[in-house]
Specification:
Strand order of the largest sheet of chain B: 3-4-6-5
Helix content of chain A: over 70%
Largest sheet of chain B: 4 strands, mixed
Catalytic activity (chain B): 4 Fe(II)-[cytochrome c] + O2 + 8 H(+)(in) = 4 Fe(III)-[cytochrome c] + 2 H2O + 4 H(+)(out)
Strand content of chain A: under 5%
Largest sheet of chain A: none
Structural class of chain B: mainly alpha
Pfam family, one (chain B): COX1
Low-confidence stretches of chain B: none
Number of helices of chain A: 3
Subcellular location (chain B): Cell membrane
Family (chain B): Belongs to the heme-copper respiratory oxidase family.
Radius of gyration of chain B: 27 Å
Number of strands of chain B: 6
Oligomer: heterodimer
Structural class of chain A: mainly alpha
Shape of chain A: elongated
Low-confidence stretches of chain A: none
Helix content of chain B: 55-70%
Mean pLDDT of chain B: 95
Radius of gyration of chain A: 17 Å
Order of helices and strands of chain A: HHH
Membrane topology (chain B): Multi-pass membrane protein
Chain lengths: 104, 833
């Protein structure tokens, strides 16, 4: 497996791995903020969302360099998967963080 | 060696090596074709049992105020229906399909670990048998298939019923765990040369993602089952809110598994559809790359939905919104696949046959189920419909639509491969219509009964609430559905007895499994092909005879060994030759010993369980005896003028990849345990008025140092071995260090006051026990490496044992560090007196 293949394979799951990590982080911060009564709860959540989104924005527009198969095919698939991950991040997290009450 | 004998002589030579003997020898089979068929056959038996239970349910609910079963028995029946269908039918059915099909589809001669396949099968059979026998004896689980606490805790289920579920299902899940590792490794490393990842058939992609989901999806449930059994057996209050536990922890752990589980069941079925539809559309699959991206998306998104099963438990709105949005969003990658299938059919020249009937049935039923799923993803609607028959209708539409219909399509598509005969058709068509009509009559009406307020799990209802006719029609539909399935069964039996014989590749498919003879020979392919195009666009009728004649790789029998090829993960280029273990009774004995552990726990013979564990461990240690080489052989001939090294001399062989996968799985289980501890700390009641614990920090730090030293020593041993220097001493020191770490955690455990008093102490005991077990495992792996070095199985080129010892030692050190961290955190919680 060349380094190009390895990169393409990793980028295939990179976007949604970041999405999963962001999910865990935001859900944990939401719970912690409620448990300990953080005064800047929503701000913390918004910052976490921005931080989590940055690598996803990069992944959504960066294609791992690959001249030949299988890396070139994999990198195209990875690009679409990573764009889907960015879309999922915006659709799943942004609305709730911006507009919904974080605690009971 | 490359001088190939005549095809018939080659077949006889290979069959002598790969065959399963008759009589009692059948029990020693490790062949994937045999075991795949056994998995599917047993799964169909459980399907029949589950179907029988569903008929009892519908008989009970057919009329109001029914006294047919009574509430106690009814609770057992509906619990067992769900349990049997989910754990004993759906998962094992696709496992069996994968075990049978994958090597043939990928161009290999067997799965990566044939004995593990056999072990998994026996665990499945014995575990399932425990559940069914318990039901026949009237001691079946009765708390619903998701076993919510506190109902399933000891005060409310004092008998053996819940233990049967927890232990029986955990026993069965061994087969799911082993299958996940096997499928993952087999797809990544055991394809035909030249079959790069982007050339793989879509079915393999679906199974790869499914296996990945199983690796991360099953551990939370296994952990939850262990914790609940510990609570029931030893009164450790993980789920008791009076003592710092929380019933919601069980729901989180269960649904962390339970929702991905739905997709774990659906994806293999979708893989079958992606294989069948292009064949009958007579054109390649549309959107191959988009489908792979969609599968990856589904695999991940399905882990972000679990709380939609818990929308009414009192969760903050923001969390509800996360899970609601993710639940709705998962419809998008599903739709990508559905449109790709429709597009393939629309742009092809579809020909109708029995599999296509079920594909059409799938489209109708599954789309309805998907749409009601999106409805239920909306929190306000869910709040109204929660725990009503609307949910029962939805889950049956997605599970029957998303698994049973595709599975029936797959049965009709691939049964000729197993039987060597084609369907008779006389029964197939009426069977389909009975199933489709019966199913919709049964379950569509449940949407209405649900919307009219009928709750799930009630054993009867009064006659003046307007549910009578809907329930009676549902029951009639249920029996029509059963008749249809009985006809399918009869059709299958008749096909084996009377079906028309056919020449190779009856459907004009483009995948490699049809290049084998049908029924397939024990070794699949007399020679392995080289693939230079996408592997769902081949010509099996042209390739098959050439492979049977020995044209290809490994087209010979050598030293009586079961040989197949391993390839590079991405490129599919040849990496090494795998020598697979031959048939053996060891998997059966090991499964029986494993069963003794579960039975000892079930019957509260706690003194016997460690004995069973020791016997199981001893038997597992016997497994590698026949594996490996005592000298460096170097590259060997593989045919076509090429050479490759044997697996013992390969750096990243399948054993190493499987162990890395097992570590990922194990790490997920541990992460779930850490999550449980943190969840209780933050969310559970009764944590504020407890006093901090006084823990011997010296013991913890010493244990961590010893575990870290073990990891470093194992790594040094590996480095020395790689450089051709003696490594046994360092590895022995690593084993000792890990053993010392094991001993040093004990004082910490002894310092924990009364673990039954509060969930904090219970969680600390659990994480420390986990650390002890894994330091012990690290010591065992290192000691095993020392023993293998002594036996001459290790050299600078043959270093698998050292790689594994290093891997497990590092994992043990990491687990110890995290266990100690959580211990200190929870130990300092509280502040009361």
């Amino acid at each position: 497996m060349t380094s190009g293949d390895k990169r393409a394979l990793l980028s295939l799951v990179a976007g949604f791995t970041v999405w999963s990590a962001a999910f865990v982080l935001l859900y944990a911060l939401q719970a912690l903020g409620c448990a300990y009564g953080w005064s800047q709860h929503r701000l913390v959540l918004c910052l976490a969302f921005v931080v989590a989104s940055l690598p996803l924005v990069w992944l959504a527009f960066w294609q791992s360099p690959a001249d030949d198969e299988p890396a070139s095919s994999l990198s195209v698939i990875a690009l679409w998967a990573n764009r889907a991950a960015l879309g999922a991040t915006v659709l799943v997290f942004l609305g709730p963080i911006a507009a919904v009450s974080p605690c009971l | 060696m490359s001088q190939t004998p005549s095809p018939i002589r080659l077949h006889k030579q290979l069959d002598a090596i790969w065959q399963t003997p008759s009589g009692w020898g059948r029990l020693s089979s490790v062949n994937h074709t045999v075991l795949g068929k056994r998995f599917m056959l047993v799964a169909l038996v459980f399907f029949a049992i589950g179907g029988l239970l569903s008929m009892l349910i519908r008989a009970q609910l057919a009329t109001p105020d029914s006294a047919f079963l009574g509430p106690e028995l009814y609770n057992q029946i509906f619990t067992m229906h769900g349990t049997v269908m989910m754990f004993l039918f759906a998962i094992p059915m696709f496992e069996g399909c994968a075990v049978y099909m994958l090597p043939k589809l990928l161009g290999a001669r067997d799965m990566a670990f044939p004995r593990l396949t056999a072990y998994g099968f026996w665990c499945y059979l014995f575990g399932g048998t425990i559940l069914i026998v318990a039901m026949l004896l009237g001691a079946a689980p009765n708390g619903g298939w998701f076993m919510y606490t506190p109902l399933s805790s000891r005060p409310y289920t004092p008998g053996i019923n819940a233990d049967v579920w927890l232990l029986g299902i955990t026993f069965v899940e061994i087969s799911a765990v082993t299958a996940a590792v096997e499928i993952f490794v087999t797809i990544l490393r055991m394809r035909a040369p030249g079959m790069s990842l982007p050339r793989m058939p879509l079915f393999a992609w679906y199974m790869l993602v499914t296996a990945g989901m199983m690796i991360f999806g099953f551990p939370p449930l296994i952990l939850g089952s262990i914790l609940l059994e510990l609570e029931r057996a030893f009164d450790l209050p993980f789920f008791d809110p009076n003592r710092g536990g929380d019933p919601l922890l069980w729901q989180h752990l269960f649904w962390l598994f339970g929702h991905p589980e739905v997709y774990i069941i659906f994806l293999p079925a979708a893989g079958a559809l992606s294989t069948i539809i292009p064949v009958f559309a007579q054109r390649p699959m549309l959107g191959y790359r988009a489908i792979i991206a969609a599968i990856v998306a589904m695999g991940f998104l399905s882990f972000g939905l679990w709380v939609h099963h818990m929308f009414t438990v009192g969760i903050p709105h923001m969390a509800l919104a996360f899970f609601s949005a993710a639940s709705a969003l998962v419809a998008v990658p599903t739709a990508v696949q559905i449109f790709a299938w429709i597009g393939t059919l629309a742009s092809g020249r579809p020909r109708w046959d029995i599999p296509m009937l079920y594909v059409a049935g799938f489209f109708v039923v599954f789309v309805i189920g998907g749409l009601t799923g999106v409805m239920l993803a909306m929190v306000p609607f869910n709040t109204q419909a929660h725990d009503s028959y609307f949910v029962v209708a939805h889950l049956h539409y997605v599970l029957v639509g998303g698994f049973v219909f595709p599975m029936l399509a797959a049965i009709y598509y691939w049964l000729p491969h197993i039987s060597g005969r084609q369907s008779l058709y006389r029964l197939s068509v009426p069977a389909f219509w009975l199933i489709l009509i019966g199913f919709n009559l049964t379950f569509f009406l449940m949407h209405l009964t649900g919307l009219m307020g009928m709750p799930r799990r009630i054993s009867t209802y009064p006659s003046n609430w307007g549910w009578d006719w809907l329930n009676l029609l549902s029951s009639i539909g249920g029996f029509i559905l059963t008749m249809g399935l009985a006809l399918v069964l009869a059709d299958m039996v008749l096909q084996f007895r009377l079906g028309r014989r056919y020449r190779r590749d009856p459907w004009q498919a483009g995948t490699l499994e049809w290049a084998t003879a049908t029924p397939p020979p024990t070794y699949n392919f007399a020679a392995l092909p080289r693939i230079d195009t996408r592997a769902d666009q081949l010509s099996p009728d042209r390739i098959g005879p050439r492979l049977a004649g020995g044209e290809g790789y490994l087209g010979f029998a050598r030293n009586g060994e079961q040989e197949t090829l391993a390839v590079d993960i991405a490129t599919g280029e040849i990496d090494h030759v795998i020598i697979l273990p031959r048939r053996s009774f060891l998997p059966l004995w090991t499964a029986l010993a494993t069963g003794s552990i579960f039975l000892a726990l079930l019957f509260k013979l706690y003194w016997a369980a460690p004995l069973g564990a020791l016997v199981t461990l001893a038997l597992f240690l016997m497994w590698p005896r026949s594996l490996g080489q005592r000298r460096d052989v170097g590259p060997v001939d593989i045919g076509r003028g090429e050479t490759a090294v044997l697996d013992a001399e390969a750096v990243g062989n399948v054993t190493v990849l499987a162990n890395r996968t097992a570590v990922a799985m194990n790490g997920t289980l541990f992460a779930s345990l850490l999550f449980g501890g943190l969840f209780l700390l933050i969310v559970a009641p009764n944590w504020t008025d407890i006093a901090p614990l006084d823990m011997p920090i010296w013991a913890g730090l010493s244990a961590l140092l010893a575990a870290a030293a073990g990891a470093v020593l194992a790594w040094l041993a590996r480095k020395r071995n790689g450089a051709g220097r003696p490594a046994g001493g360092f590895l022995a020191a690593a084993a000792i260090a890990q053993g010392v770490a094991t001993g040093l955690v004990v004082p910490l455990m002894l310092a924990v006051p009364d673990p039954t008093g509060h969930a904090r102490q219970a969680v600390i005991m659990a994480v420390l026990l986990y650390a002890i077990l894994h330091c012990g495992l690290g010591a065992l792996m290192a000691a095993h490496g020392v023993w293998r070095i002594g036996r001459g199985f290790v050299s600078a080129r043959r270093q698998t044992e050292l790689v594994l010892a290093t891997l497990w030692a590092a994992y043990a050190a990491g687990a110890t560090a995290l266990a100690l961290g959580l211990t200190l955190l929870l130990g300092s919680a509280g502040g009361g007196s």
